Amino acid sequence: MSSTGAPSAVRSARPRPIRRGGSRRRSLARRRLRAAIALILAGFTLWLGISLGTALTNPALGSSVASRFAEWGRGNGGASIVNWVENLWYTHHPPPVGGRPPVGAIRKPSAATASNTVGLPHLPTPPAIVPPASPPLPGEGQWTPVGRSVDGIPAVYETTLRPDAVHTSYVVGVAWMDTKLLDTTLYSGSQIPGGGPYLHSAPIPPAAADSLVAAFNAGFLMAAAEGGYYTDGRVVLPLRTGAASFVVYRDGTATVGQWGVDVSMTPDVVSVRQNLDLLVDHGQPVPGLNSADTTKWGATLGDAVYVWRSGLGVTANGALVYVGGPGLNITDLADLLARAGAVRAMELDINTDWVNFSVYAPAGGTGPAVPANGSLLLPGMVGGPTRYFEPWWARDFITLSAVPTRPAASAQGPGRRTG
Description:
By secondary structure, the chain is of the alpha+beta class. It has two domains: 22-91; 144-412, no CATH class. It has helices at 5-13, 21-56, 65-75, 79-91, 206-209, 222-225, 294-297, 330-339; strands at residues 144-146, 156-161, 172-177, 182-187, 212-217, 229-231, 234-237, 244-249, 254-258, 269-274, 278-281, 284-285, 307-315, 320-328, 342-350, 357-360, 374-376, 397-402. The strands form three sheets. An eight-stranded antiparallel β-sheet has the order 1-2-3-14-13-15-11-12, covered by helices on one side. Helix 2 (21-56) packs across helix 3 (65-75) and helix 3 runs antiparallel to helix 4. It is globular and about 120 Å long.
């Protein structure tokens, strides 16, 4: 055997040492990646728990868990999913055809009890509404005075009627407000329009409660309103030319009109709330209204058109008229506003949790308005007369208060068109 061969063979048979540096680096990278993913998931879970938990316990987002979840979803990028779910629900739960309203749903009218019909300038009692469904039921479309009177004169009247000739088991409410006797204020919220603080925000303060007569919901979330917002001397969101606009003037009067046509910015304007386009103009529903066009008149409901809706209009003599109730599509809402005498009208908020009209009647006609002496336009309205007195109420709303000393000449309001 060669003295040099054996060691060579032995050397060649020895296993070479394994270099483990690359494997360790890859393993460390995988561990770091897993830790990062776990940290992200933990952070997301924590955010989800806090965000969703806060939303589900926030009464400003609705009265039910479902409505609060939907509002949370829309506000966090899930609008398309919420729309799909609501579309599925309403598609499989259409409004019933025919039938009669529940007993007592159509109010029997009562006569006005004005103790002073000459002391203050006021508008004449509105004429009865001709109901869409025929023959009318007893009391249908007939007015009843409600709420606190102003110097003994009724300032708000209400009536109930069926919204159309097909869905005759539904009942909607209509309120008529005398703008010669009532002062108007737009209250702004941290959610709608957002921002703040504002001069007027919920809760209604005691000083304002002393003269409060009525309060009702305003419009859509501003992201869906297709318009702007002005109050407290500043533009909160840019006003859109052509938009349907609720305008409050310095003298407390208010009107509804198309921005840039019927109404515009003047030194007398103190608040402007825009929401979509006019529903009624020149006393008639605007041409081209399509009840199935939910992209414009309520996209949050997918293809569901018969839902809780509300609207506000102004009559030829300056009164405000409010319509709200279930089972309404956009054409029915416009028709009812026109039947109530509106020469111009706009849609306000929609969906069960947001449609609310309350009036307040302190004992003896004096003293503060409080939830206990409030009543709803319809018993099915959510939130009761309480929400406007709650510090957590974060949406904008409108109030009407007794003003017993307003001069007759101011009732038309600056810049108002009456036809």
